[in-house]
## 1
Amino acid sequence: MGGSRAAGERLPGTWFRGRWLPWLLLAPQLLVIAVFFLWPTLRALRDAFYQGDAFGLSEEFVGLRHFAHTLGSAEYGHALLLTLAYALLTSALSLAGGFALAVAVEGLRSGRTLFRTLFLWPYALAPAISAALWVFLFRPQVGLGAGLLEHAGVHWNPALQAGQAQALVLATTVWQLLAYNFLFYGAALQSLPPSLLEAAALDGARGWRRVRDVIWPLLAPTTLFLVVTDLSFVLFDTFGLIDVLTQGGPDHATETLVYKLYEDAFRNFDQGAAAVQSLLLMLLVTGLGVLQLRLQRRRVPA
Amino acid sequence: MTFRIAMRRFTRAGLWLAAITLAVPAHAARVPIQFWHAMSGELGVEVQHLVDGFNASQDRYQVIAVNRGSYDQTMLAAIAAFRAGTPPDIVQVFDVGTATMMSARGATVPVYALMQQQKQPFATGLFIPAAASYYADAQGRLLSLPFNASTPVLYYNKAMLARAGVTPPTSWAQMGAAGTRLLATGATCGFSTGWPEWIQFEQFAAWNGLPYASADNGYQSFQGVHLLLQAPAFQKHLGDLAAWSRSGVFRYGGPESNALPLFINQTCAMYLDSSSSMAAIAGGARFPWGIAPMPHAASVPGAPQNSLTGGASLWVMARVPADHLPGIAAFLHYLMSAPVQAQWARATGYVPVTRGGYDALQASGYYRQNPGALVAVQELSNKPPLAWTRGLRLGYLPQLRQIQRNALEAVLAGKQTPAAALRQVVQQGDGLLQRFGETAGGER
């Protein structure tokens, strides 16, 4: 932090010694991190080793029991696999969809602004609101979408059919993420150096060839960023969506890690189990963050 | 000198201020009583009516009603506030949170003890037995005040039943037969159910006089309690539901009241749901409909017994300022009065929880004009509750419900047999109950 200056040397024109000024300026941010991140994390770490009642009147140290219980339960294993499949599938589908839409819209001669606005709308909705829309559309016997499906001969009842419930959650999540991915791909497409595209055009690269060999590789940093944000959206922000759509059912079919955590913490008041699950989820996402940094460094040499 | 003048002015102003603040309290300083509840929309407006009535009736206390969201959120908020040392005075907690509140000794003040201490007339006998027993300890003393009470009833479509030539079924066997007739006369679904785990497990047990868990459903002790859901009657019921689900007689519509539209749009001719859904059905149904008691299992001797009360009760939190206690007791006393009970029941569709409230409604001719509203009262008081049909006193009840709903869904989807599903329910549930027994206080 001191830069090339010797410690204790005053910066010209200030009253502060160079050593303290940076810390002073950092203090608000550090305070926020300590209060909203460090302290709760330490609390969760501690709670993971205790069994207590909801009111905090009594508790006892139980060692690794919550960890053993969580990791040993078939439900947690199921939720983990389900979450991985859900995260990978939604990210892949919404990335591909967002990219395709962005390329198509940027290639239009007119009406670009109109389509950009239309495709962005879902992003403006909170997950719970978009889930509520889909609930109305796909409520058996009542919804428009459900009517179309039944007309097509599908016996539509996501309250009972696991596959249908999963498809509904998947479709809603992809629909929501699509807008976000479209936005970033659209912006990235606009900032591509025209000289490269012109050079490619002169070399005869057109249509699909141009997209595959020139545009897609140039967008790799955007894709990497989107993969990580999509995955963390699916891992963290989808409990509201699932709560509105299926409440984790039928028979655990849509119970992802974050939804299970939400239920154990806020519905079942099971603090120990919830603390363990939040720590595990944090590890997962930290791993994801580290991976992103490494990949980014490899791609963009400093 | 200017300093001295300023000082004198300052002192004079201070004296005036002191005089004013000392003089005013006699009129303005009502003791504030925080009341956190989970009633939103129309129900929240009705709660505010009750509170306004109390505040206008006296000038010593000011009850401040605050809606804290859903039942889950309200309970969570009260727990968080208690841990932070600033609990509300009164909090509304739903039925399934009862054991958690009760096991947290030192977090609440038992209502019977508060009323005794504050010399307010109070006795368990003033309440409708099924409403009182859910919130009473093993000695029959009320730990919380029953507030909004409901119980499941059978809603039926009069036109569809008439077309099929059937009357509202009273037993599950009749339910199956009526459903078959309905399908034969053009209906696509015989019946559906709201709140599957509450109605098809908890209420099924009580209504048929079957124990749900050992130690009188946990009333005797929190320790060593296990579920008794593998009894033949539960196996048969689950098997029947699965068979009816395959044939179309029964259509599963998901948790809570998610299946209600199936009744409203005349897909299903009959629908089991809480009596408090009456307003929603009255608002949506464009056809003549009626209310009948839940069907019972004819093969179980003694059935029907009594249904359990659902809804919520009011808990008084511990560690609130001592000068709030007389006001809290006065407010609870006000809520118990017959006119308030009658007003609340009439406006919301909830069952009155005191005998006085019921008598007042009866005398005013309310039940003659709304015979459907009487069905819930009759179910709750069909017979005096047995030791194991007073209610459920089980920890982790929300989780137990979730386990049962998952089991029901697995059976209906054909993934598990009723026997295997119930074995799993008991195995997982007993694990939770054991864990609860380890942390909960021993004394009831």
## 2
Amino acid sequence: MQYEMNFGWTSPIGEVLLGATKNDGGTRRVSYRIGGGSTLPFLEDMSTTPAPLIAFEVCDNPAFWSPIIRDYCGDLVTSVSEWAKKADTDYRADLIRLHLTSTKQRNFSDIASLGPVVESVLSATSLPLIIEGSNEPKIDSEVYQKCGEAGQGERLLLGTAEAGKYRSIAAAALAYNHSIIAQSPIDINLAKQLNILLKEIGVQRDHIVIDPYTGALGYGFEYSFSAMERIRFSALKGDTDLAMPMICSAADTLSIKEVREAGPGQQDELAIQWELFTCLAAAAAGAEILCVRHPGTLAPLRKALAGMKQKAHTAGVH
Amino acid sequence: MTDVESAKKHGEEALKTRIQAIQKPFSYEETAYHLPISYALTGVAVHDRAAVEEVLKKTADNPIVASECLLAEQTAVKGKEPAPYTGFISDTVIRKLGYSLVDGSILGLALIVGTPQGEGSAAAICRELQEKYMLTFLAGNVVPSLSGAGVKLGLDYRLIPLGSSPFYGIHFTDIVARVAMMFGGVTPGDMHRLLAYAAERAKAIVIVFPGLTDEEIALVDGMRVLGFPILSLGDYEGGTWVPATPDDVVRQGMDLKGIKVHVTAIPIPMSCSPAFEGKSIRKEEMYVEFGGGRSPAFELLRMREPSEIEDGKITVIGPEIDAMKEGSANPLGIIIEVAGKAMKKDYEPVLERRIHNFVNYGEGSWHVAQRDLIWVRISKEAVAKGVKIEHIGKLLASKFRMDFPQLLDAVAVTLITDPTKVAEAKKEAERVYDERDARIKGMRDSDVNTYYSCTLCQTFAPNHVCVITPERLALCGAISWLDGKIAYEMSPSGANQPIEKGPVINELTGEFEGVNRFVKKASHGEIERCSLYSVMEYPMTCCGCFEAIALMLPEVNGIMVVNREYKGMTPSGMTFSTLAGTIGGGAQTPGFAGISKNYVLSDRFLQGEGGIERLVWMPAALKEELKERLVKKLADRGLSGFLDKVADETTAETIEALMEFLERAGHPALTMKPLV
């Protein structure tokens, strides 16, 4: 059966560069150019962009992490650099997303300690890095300054800017030439507004990745999907303020009832399945980066994405 | 007294002479920007005498460039000054400073040069600058004077001693030049961009104490090119330096550059954020309401002289919320008075429309419509938390200050709940509305090539796009073409954008290529075509704020109009609220259009369907409201007596009665081209 594949798109999604190799003044072994798509993902007989990148999420204080992952990974979680290294060499992630959860401790003030954390992860892996700073207005300014400085030259992706807190992240991106994640609460207009605010402060469009906010499958993901779909349609129809790549994290899936309350022996499998299918749905909606926390999710996710890239008949679907 | 003009002349000559003495090559360390000012202005990397000559030629012997070259050479030869002086500051530190500027933790930059007279005056100025989040650079005798007064210096204290003589003030400028290149996207050599960046984005002021030499005066005066105000604290005359007193110099400088200390938290007992904007308050959740046809209510924003209002003052005239019965409807007048250097009277209606957003930002307050049609509710939950009428005033005053820092210096809010006083003030408000409506009278759609959009309501109706033309104001009745134009001037990335109307597709229905293109984009691809003057074909989308609805009645081959205030049944078999529920939400519904009441008076009204002759029914009160102007308009168009042929609820409540009435009256619509 033949479908009409002309949707009247007028312009492609902008590209964002992640990671800097030696040639570009950094120390990463690889850099990625994400975005650039000119139609929806996974269409047959259409020139589409590569499959989404998979980022593995780690943190520097596991007390603020899912117990499922803590149990599965064991002692590994106590050393963020070892953890990141394993994500690179064993789990085969494309990117590492470092959450500075230590900043979540009550009255956290040891900003100076963050520099060495970032540096240790940068030396433990040569993959491009995503860094999530603090979420506390009182320390945001110093934390992002420190992150930006520690990763100077590496072309990091810094997160997460929101309508109420974007100045510090924007400043770090501008000062040290990093890109930033701009998150809005499942709302196309707020996504656009934030991008405009960032533009006004001086952040270039090719330094912004949209986080539409990803609900867990069965727990609001349909809203995320709809928002992503509309963001992508608008972008392809020429709205340059929305024409950026998107990032989705399946983090919420680890705290939903089915996974949280699953019996021992089943919990890991359920966590993996939930992350996997949330990510696949996000990929179908157009995400360029998918973030997972369970080490077991990466292999099946990669396999499934490869299957989606194949022609329908070769993949066994008619 | 030193005469600035003549000192400047002597100084510039002296600088030129001294340049001749430069022999050996030189450079600054720890920078990728060479001599930053020269590099930013000309793109030339200065390291020797030949390059010095080149940049001076390119900048017409600019005293800042000359000073930069001289100081760089002097630093290379003699080395840096000892601590506490910083001398030239490295790129790494500038990056951090720039970070704080973008971040907002520093609001602006100040340079203080010269020799303070007597202890304490410089210290007081510096303390004020610190309190106002300014980063201050110091050069010359002001440094020992501050140390003498026990003032701590250094980056941590936001007081940076650049050097022992005012000449080191040049580093202030090289910092701004580097911030422009690092953060502002200014490419070296793009002089125009640099000057624009320095003038508009770099919030910098210069404070001058007495005792500057001619050369130093030439240098400081040269900074005016970058848009820095030079504030003089005595001993200088002539030139364009701004005389100031130590008590007032910081405020004056910050005012001149429009640097404002932001309000961050609103002191009211409910949360306030755009996140609550789309949340409505249902009847069961409501504690009290105002307006909405249940009680008289209005809102008005007016410009005043700064001396006439006290910033942040909230006045409640009449009973507070605790004296109101739960579930009751009460009268309300919201009067906002604003003052500001950049404020214009033309901006009043545009700012007034923001009351809608701001009241909705409150977790327990809700607002719809505009002018004397407003409808406001306060929730039970909010009242239980202690929210009062006064807090709505605080919310409004703070939000206006926060969102329009460049425009408003003072905002005062008066809320009237006393029935007699509301009635009085409402009369005055109506006079103001009429005055505003009169301003745009006489302008034609064909007179302009640009219309304006309004997507303010996309928070409620995600694909809705209003197209505002001189002869068709927004369907809410609150934003005219002029208001759209002004709103765009004030906020170029806001909800009102210019629309190039482009080539005509259909003159009669008002369809234009440019408008279609814009609407398609702004409706996220949902709406392909939009005709401005037609109800039947591709009418404009409707949000939910329309003052009235125009809809076709196929049985009588005509179009009726019903306004929001009318509660009764209409010949269509539906009430206003039923109709509103059917057509709102950003949809395009052929046969139905949301319109402003005044649009009925426009020559473009129903143009696509044959003009006002199609109008068969409207509520008596609306007829009465428009009568005076409508009768005149109709007479001008040779349609005297037409208004009597238009039915209302007193003559026809049903479609059958309407048919009879129209036939009896000999209404022209009956014999016009069939609508469907």
